[in-house]
Write a structure and sequence with these properties.
By secondary structure, this protein is an all-alpha fold. It has one domain (6-310). The protein contains 14 helices and 2 strands; from the N terminus they run H-H-H-E-E-H-H-H-H-H-H-H-H-H-H-H. The protein has a two-stranded antiparallel ribbon with strand order 1-2. The chain crosses the membrane at residues 29-49, 69-89, 110-135, 162-184, 205-225, 231-252, 259-279, 291-310. It comes from Halocatena pleomorpha. Keywords: Hydrolase, Membrane, Metalloprotease, Protease, Transmembrane, Transmembrane helix.
Protein backbone atom coordinates (compact mmCIF):
# COMPACT_ATOMS: atom_id res chain seq x y z
CA UNK A 1 0.00 0.00 0.00
CA UNK A 2 1.39 3.40 -0.92
CA UNK A 3 2.02 6.01 1.75
CA UNK A 4 -0.75 8.55 2.36
CA UNK A 5 -0.15 12.26 2.40
CA UNK A 6 -1.03 14.03 5.69
CA UNK A 7 -3.80 15.97 3.95
CA UNK A 8 -5.37 12.73 2.73
CA UNK A 9 -4.99 11.19 6.15
CA UNK A 10 -7.01 13.98 7.74
CA UNK A 11 -10.04 12.86 5.69
CA UNK A 12 -9.88 9.26 6.92
CA UNK A 13 -11.34 7.75 10.07
CA UNK A 14 -8.64 8.31 12.68
CA UNK A 15 -7.01 5.04 13.73
CA UNK A 16 -3.47 4.19 14.75
CA UNK A 17 -3.06 1.99 11.65
CA UNK A 18 -4.05 4.90 9.42
CA UNK A 19 -1.49 7.13 11.14
CA UNK A 20 1.23 4.52 10.72
CA UNK A 21 0.61 4.40 6.96
CA UNK A 22 1.13 8.14 6.56
CA UNK A 23 4.29 10.16 6.14
CA UNK A 24 5.65 12.24 8.99
CA UNK A 25 4.22 15.75 8.77
CA UNK A 26 7.48 17.37 9.76
CA UNK A 27 6.23 20.94 9.39
CA UNK A 28 3.54 20.25 11.96
CA UNK A 29 6.05 18.52 14.24
CA UNK A 30 8.44 21.48 14.08
CA UNK A 31 5.65 23.98 14.68
CA UNK A 32 4.31 21.97 17.60
CA UNK A 33 7.73 21.76 19.26
CA UNK A 34 8.34 25.48 18.67
CA UNK A 35 4.97 26.51 20.10
CA UNK A 36 5.24 24.14 23.07
CA UNK A 37 8.75 25.09 24.06
CA UNK A 38 8.29 28.75 23.19
CA UNK A 39 5.28 29.19 25.46
CA UNK A 40 6.71 27.16 28.35
CA UNK A 41 10.17 28.71 28.14
CA UNK A 42 8.63 32.19 28.24
CA UNK A 43 6.91 31.17 31.47
CA UNK A 44 10.23 29.75 32.66
CA UNK A 45 11.83 33.13 32.01
CA UNK A 46 9.16 34.77 34.14
CA UNK A 47 9.94 32.29 36.91
CA UNK A 48 13.64 33.18 36.66
CA UNK A 49 13.22 36.98 36.78
CA UNK A 50 10.76 36.80 39.69
CA UNK A 51 13.07 34.93 42.04
CA UNK A 52 13.45 31.51 40.47
CA UNK A 53 12.48 28.24 42.10
CA UNK A 54 12.81 28.55 45.86
CA UNK A 55 12.33 30.97 48.75
CA UNK A 56 13.16 34.07 46.68
CA UNK A 57 9.96 33.63 44.68
CA UNK A 58 7.15 35.83 46.06
CA UNK A 59 4.68 34.07 48.34
CA UNK A 60 1.11 34.22 47.07
CA UNK A 61 -0.74 32.62 49.98
CA UNK A 62 -0.36 29.90 52.63
CA UNK A 63 3.12 28.83 51.56
CA UNK A 64 2.26 28.78 47.84
CA UNK A 65 4.84 30.78 45.94
CA UNK A 66 4.63 32.38 42.53
CA UNK A 67 6.83 29.73 40.94
CA UNK A 68 4.38 27.01 42.04
CA UNK A 69 1.55 28.71 40.17
CA UNK A 70 3.70 29.46 37.14
CA UNK A 71 4.81 25.83 36.99
CA UNK A 72 1.21 24.76 36.37
CA UNK A 73 0.99 27.28 33.52
CA UNK A 74 4.33 26.02 32.18
CA UNK A 75 2.85 22.51 31.97
CA UNK A 76 0.17 23.69 29.53
CA UNK A 77 2.70 24.60 26.84
CA UNK A 78 2.30 21.28 24.96
CA UNK A 79 -1.51 21.54 25.00
CA UNK A 80 -1.25 25.07 23.62
CA UNK A 81 1.22 23.77 21.05
CA UNK A 82 -1.34 21.18 19.93
CA UNK A 83 -4.06 23.78 19.49
CA UNK A 84 -1.90 26.43 17.82
CA UNK A 85 -0.38 23.95 15.37
CA UNK A 86 -3.83 22.79 14.31
CA UNK A 87 -4.96 26.38 13.80
CA UNK A 88 -1.88 27.56 11.90
CA UNK A 89 -1.75 24.52 9.58
CA UNK A 90 -5.55 24.22 9.10
CA UNK A 91 -5.27 20.66 10.33
CA UNK A 92 -8.68 20.66 11.94
CA UNK A 93 -9.82 18.91 15.07
CA UNK A 94 -9.85 15.25 14.16
CA UNK A 95 -7.68 12.84 16.08
CA UNK A 96 -7.70 14.68 19.41
CA UNK A 97 -7.79 11.35 21.33
CA UNK A 98 -10.05 12.83 23.98
CA UNK A 99 -12.66 10.06 23.82
CA UNK A 100 -12.05 7.89 26.88
CA UNK A 101 -13.04 4.45 25.50
CA UNK A 102 -13.22 3.45 29.15
CA UNK A 103 -15.60 0.53 28.75
CA UNK A 104 -13.35 -1.45 26.42
CA UNK A 105 -9.98 -0.18 27.66
CA UNK A 106 -10.48 0.22 31.42
CA UNK A 107 -7.50 -2.02 32.17
CA UNK A 108 -5.08 0.57 30.78
CA UNK A 109 -6.57 3.22 33.04
CA UNK A 110 -6.10 0.91 36.02
CA UNK A 111 -2.57 0.00 35.03
CA UNK A 112 -1.64 3.66 34.72
CA UNK A 113 -3.26 4.61 38.03
CA UNK A 114 -2.03 1.73 40.19
CA UNK A 115 0.63 -0.20 38.28
CA UNK A 116 3.04 2.68 37.72
CA UNK A 117 3.00 3.76 41.41
CA UNK A 118 3.77 0.18 42.44
CA UNK A 119 6.89 0.32 40.28
CA UNK A 120 7.80 3.62 41.91
CA UNK A 121 7.54 2.02 45.35
CA UNK A 122 9.67 -0.87 44.11
CA UNK A 123 12.29 1.58 42.87
CA UNK A 124 12.41 3.32 46.24
CA UNK A 125 12.81 -0.02 47.99
CA UNK A 126 15.58 -0.99 45.59
CA UNK A 127 17.45 2.24 46.32
CA UNK A 128 17.32 1.67 50.08
CA UNK A 129 18.40 -1.96 49.63
CA UNK A 130 21.46 -0.82 47.67
CA UNK A 131 22.18 2.18 49.91
CA UNK A 132 20.94 1.16 53.39
CA UNK A 133 22.75 4.07 55.08
CA UNK A 134 20.06 6.37 53.70
CA UNK A 135 17.15 4.27 55.00
CA UNK A 136 15.41 5.43 58.18
CA UNK A 137 13.07 2.70 59.51
CA UNK A 138 12.15 4.90 62.49
CA UNK A 139 10.67 7.60 60.23
CA UNK A 140 12.43 10.23 62.32
CA UNK A 141 11.89 13.00 59.76
CA UNK A 142 8.16 12.28 59.74
CA UNK A 143 8.08 12.22 63.52
CA UNK A 144 9.88 15.58 63.64
CA UNK A 145 7.43 17.06 61.14
CA UNK A 146 4.44 15.86 63.16
CA UNK A 147 5.80 17.32 66.40
CA UNK A 148 6.59 20.59 64.66
CA UNK A 149 3.05 20.95 63.33
CA UNK A 150 1.27 19.54 66.41
CA UNK A 151 -0.08 21.61 69.26
CA UNK A 152 1.21 21.44 72.85
CA UNK A 153 3.66 18.72 71.89
CA UNK A 154 0.86 16.35 70.87
CA UNK A 155 0.81 14.75 67.46
CA UNK A 156 -2.40 13.79 65.63
CA UNK A 157 -0.94 10.64 64.06
CA UNK A 158 1.85 8.19 64.59
CA UNK A 159 4.50 8.32 61.84
CA UNK A 160 3.34 4.98 60.41
CA UNK A 161 -0.23 6.24 60.24
CA UNK A 162 0.92 9.43 58.54
CA UNK A 163 2.78 7.46 55.86
CA UNK A 164 -0.30 5.30 55.26
CA UNK A 165 -2.51 8.39 54.94
CA UNK A 166 -0.06 10.01 52.55
CA UNK A 167 0.07 6.85 50.42
CA UNK A 168 -3.72 6.56 50.22
CA UNK A 169 -3.95 10.25 49.40
CA UNK A 170 -1.28 9.95 46.68
CA UNK A 171 -3.14 7.04 45.07
CA UNK A 172 -6.51 8.79 45.14
CA UNK A 173 -7.15 12.50 45.56
CA UNK A 174 -3.60 13.66 44.78
CA UNK A 175 -3.57 11.72 41.51
CA UNK A 176 -6.98 13.11 40.58
CA UNK A 177 -5.89 16.69 41.29
CA UNK A 178 -2.63 16.24 39.39
CA UNK A 179 -4.60 15.22 36.29
CA UNK A 180 -5.52 18.88 35.76
CA UNK A 181 -1.88 19.85 35.24
CA UNK A 182 -0.71 16.68 33.50
CA UNK A 183 -3.44 17.04 30.90
CA UNK A 184 -1.61 20.17 29.78
CA UNK A 185 1.41 18.02 28.92
CA UNK A 186 -0.23 14.84 27.72
CA UNK A 187 -2.62 16.57 25.32
CA UNK A 188 0.54 17.68 23.56
CA UNK A 189 3.10 14.90 23.96
CA UNK A 190 1.02 11.73 23.77
CA UNK A 191 -2.10 13.03 21.97
CA UNK A 192 -0.26 14.99 19.27
CA UNK A 193 3.51 14.48 19.03
CA UNK A 194 3.61 10.68 19.36
CA UNK A 195 0.92 10.09 16.68
CA UNK A 196 2.70 12.51 14.36
CA UNK A 197 5.97 10.58 14.77
CA UNK A 198 4.52 7.07 14.46
CA UNK A 199 5.40 6.76 10.76
CA UNK A 200 9.03 6.58 11.92
CA UNK A 201 8.12 3.36 13.72
CA UNK A 202 6.77 2.79 17.21
CA UNK A 203 10.15 2.61 18.94
CA UNK A 204 11.58 5.66 17.21
CA UNK A 205 8.41 7.67 17.85
CA UNK A 206 8.22 7.07 21.58
CA UNK A 207 11.98 7.51 22.11
CA UNK A 208 12.23 10.74 20.13
CA UNK A 209 9.16 12.20 21.82
CA UNK A 210 10.65 11.32 25.21
CA UNK A 211 13.89 13.13 24.41
CA UNK A 212 11.98 16.23 23.25
CA UNK A 213 9.92 16.09 26.43
CA UNK A 214 13.10 16.05 28.52
CA UNK A 215 14.62 19.04 26.72
CA UNK A 216 11.36 20.94 27.28
CA UNK A 217 12.07 20.64 31.05
CA UNK A 218 15.55 22.17 30.86
CA UNK A 219 14.78 25.75 31.98
CA UNK A 220 13.23 24.39 35.18
CA UNK A 221 16.01 21.89 35.78
CA UNK A 222 18.70 24.54 35.31
CA UNK A 223 16.94 26.64 37.96
CA UNK A 224 17.22 23.75 40.42
CA UNK A 225 13.95 21.90 39.98
CA UNK A 226 14.16 18.16 40.76
CA UNK A 227 17.98 18.14 40.88
CA UNK A 228 18.88 21.23 42.93
CA UNK A 229 22.50 20.25 43.61
CA UNK A 230 23.37 19.04 40.12
CA UNK A 231 21.39 21.08 37.57
CA UNK A 232 23.70 20.36 34.63
CA UNK A 233 23.86 16.61 35.17
CA UNK A 234 20.20 16.82 36.16
CA UNK A 235 19.39 18.09 32.67
CA UNK A 236 20.81 14.85 31.27
CA UNK A 237 19.11 12.85 34.00
CA UNK A 238 15.76 14.43 33.12
CA UNK A 239 16.10 13.41 29.46
CA UNK A 240 16.81 9.85 30.58
CA UNK A 241 13.82 9.91 32.93
CA UNK A 242 11.36 11.38 30.42
CA UNK A 243 12.51 8.92 27.77
CA UNK A 244 11.79 6.00 30.12
CA UNK A 245 8.47 7.37 31.32
CA UNK A 246 7.56 8.53 27.82
CA UNK A 247 7.70 4.92 26.61
CA UNK A 248 5.29 3.85 29.35
CA UNK A 249 2.86 6.73 28.89
CA UNK A 250 2.84 6.24 25.12
CA UNK A 251 2.17 2.54 25.74
CA UNK A 252 -0.93 3.10 27.85
CA UNK A 253 -2.16 5.86 25.53
CA UNK A 254 -1.76 3.84 22.34
CA UNK A 255 -3.16 0.65 23.82
CA UNK A 256 -5.95 2.56 25.55
CA UNK A 257 -6.74 4.49 22.33
CA UNK A 258 -7.01 7.67 24.35
CA UNK A 259 -4.91 10.35 25.99
CA UNK A 260 -6.57 9.77 29.38
CA UNK A 261 -4.55 6.74 30.53
CA UNK A 262 -1.41 8.81 29.92
CA UNK A 263 -2.87 11.76 31.81
CA UNK A 264 -3.66 9.48 34.76
CA UNK A 265 -0.31 7.69 34.61
CA UNK A 266 1.60 10.96 34.54
CA UNK A 267 -0.49 12.29 37.44
CA UNK A 268 0.06 9.10 39.44
CA UNK A 269 3.82 9.37 38.97
CA UNK A 270 3.82 13.01 40.10
CA UNK A 271 1.61 12.27 43.10
CA UNK A 272 3.59 9.27 44.35
CA UNK A 273 7.17 10.26 43.60
CA UNK A 274 7.83 11.92 46.95
CA UNK A 275 6.69 9.09 49.22
CA UNK A 276 10.12 7.44 49.32
CA UNK A 277 11.57 10.60 50.88
CA UNK A 278 9.53 9.87 54.03
CA UNK A 279 11.87 6.92 54.68
CA UNK A 280 15.03 8.85 53.87
CA UNK A 281 17.79 10.05 56.13
CA UNK A 282 20.91 11.89 55.07
CA UNK A 283 21.28 13.60 51.71
CA UNK A 284 21.60 11.16 48.81
CA UNK A 285 22.05 12.41 45.27
CA UNK A 286 18.73 12.81 43.52
CA UNK A 287 20.43 11.55 40.40
CA UNK A 288 20.32 8.13 42.08
CA UNK A 289 17.17 8.18 44.21
CA UNK A 290 15.23 7.29 46.22
CA UNK A 291 12.70 9.28 44.22
CA UNK A 292 11.72 7.97 40.81
CA UNK A 293 13.62 10.78 39.04
CA UNK A 294 16.85 9.03 40.09
CA UNK A 295 18.50 6.32 38.02
CA UNK A 296 18.06 3.67 40.72
CA UNK A 297 14.62 4.88 41.74
CA UNK A 298 13.43 4.62 38.14
CA UNK A 299 15.06 1.27 37.42
CA UNK A 300 11.84 -0.83 37.61
CA UNK A 301 10.19 1.59 35.18
CA UNK A 302 13.24 1.41 32.92
CA UNK A 303 13.17 -2.40 32.88
CA UNK A 304 9.51 -2.38 31.85
CA UNK A 305 10.18 0.28 29.20
CA UNK A 306 13.07 -1.74 27.76
CA UNK A 307 10.92 -4.88 27.66
CA UNK A 308 8.21 -2.98 25.78
CA UNK A 309 10.73 -1.63 23.29
CA UNK A 310 12.09 -5.11 22.61
CA UNK A 311 8.63 -6.54 21.94
CA UNK A 312 7.43 -5.73 18.45
CA UNK A 313 3.74 -5.67 19.33
CA UNK A 314 3.85 -3.62 22.53
CA UNK A 315 2.24 -0.47 21.17
CA UNK A 316 -0.62 -2.00 19.26
Amino acid sequence: MSKLEPETLSLLPVTWSAIERSAVAWRRVYLFVAFSMGFSWIIGTVVYVTGGIGPDSPELFAGIRLWNALLVIYMFGPAIGNVLTRVVTDEGWRGLYLRPHLRRNWQWWLLAWVGLPLLIYLGGGLFFALFPAFFDPTLSSVNELLHRTGQSGEIPFQPEQFVLIQTISALTIATAINCVATFGEEFGWRAYLVPKLLPLGNRQAVLLSGVIWGVWHWPLILMGHNYPDTPLLGSVGMVYFTTVVGVLLAWVALRGESVWPAVIGHAAINANTGLAVLFQQGDPSRLLGPMVIGVVGSLPLAVLALWLLVRSDSFG
